[in-house]
Design brief:
Blueprint (H helix, E strand, L loop, with lengths): L10 H8 L3 H27 L6 H10 L6 H11 L38 E11 L2 E10 L4 E8 L4 H9 L10 E4 L8 H9 L3 E4 L9 H15 L7 H17 L11 H12 L1
Parallel strand pairs: 1-4, 4-5
Antiparallel strand pairs: 1-2, 2-3
Amino acid sequence: MIKNNRHKYSISAMCRVLQIPKSTYYYEAKDNSSEDGLTSTIIDIFNESRQNYGTRKIKFELNKLGYVISRRRIGRIMKEQGLVSTYTIAQFKPHPTTCNESKQKNELDRKFDQEEELNVVVSDLTYVRVNQKWHYVCVFIDLFNREIIGYSTGPNKDAALVYRAFASIGRDLRKIQYFHTDRGNEFKNKLIDEALETFEIKRSLSMKGCPYDNAVAEATFKIIKTEFIRRRQFASLEELTIELQDYIHWFNYILIHGTLGYLSPIEYKLEHLKKVV
């Protein structure tokens, strides 16, 4: 009431009539101003995250800016402002597919925390709708910092798709010790075997019908499906490829990951290099 009538009456007079101490009014005005600034900051963080961050990640971003705010308060402000994260935790749903019956063992054995860059690279692929037809995305992930180091797109789920993703890796491939995947036949064929043999990269395969043996790749694709694929319509393969390239840059350089101490993959790698030096 006082705020809405400041242009007509003095604050002192209105406080006197309402029997409110002036100090109370100024305290509340200051507190509201602080709340407005926090709300604006939360909105900015939410939008910069491509509308993906929930209360947990927004809290960490606020901490970087010097705010000490509870997730409950952040959630209240998000609800008031209509900020709804697109991220949901999807449950794994197995799809019937031809299985690679190789006797190759699971050398990784779910040791997903790796101390050295390129020690273990994992891969998987998923499907996406492009102009009313199914297309596919393949990514290669370094377990050291969860960075997507290679990727490809294409109309077919085959060895050529995997090979293009392999060829896109801009690193010294001889440094890769293990290449781990599930038992999809697109990962087990002469083309891929020759590439791995050339660079002396050892194989590791998940147990048959066990997605948890390749959990990091599975989790990465849950993020990609929720934050990237589900929210876009692609008119052509070229458009998908360009948009995916932009998303992967954001994934590697900007998106904070809980498993990396709420750092992006590149930030995590740089922090590790500082400790080594």
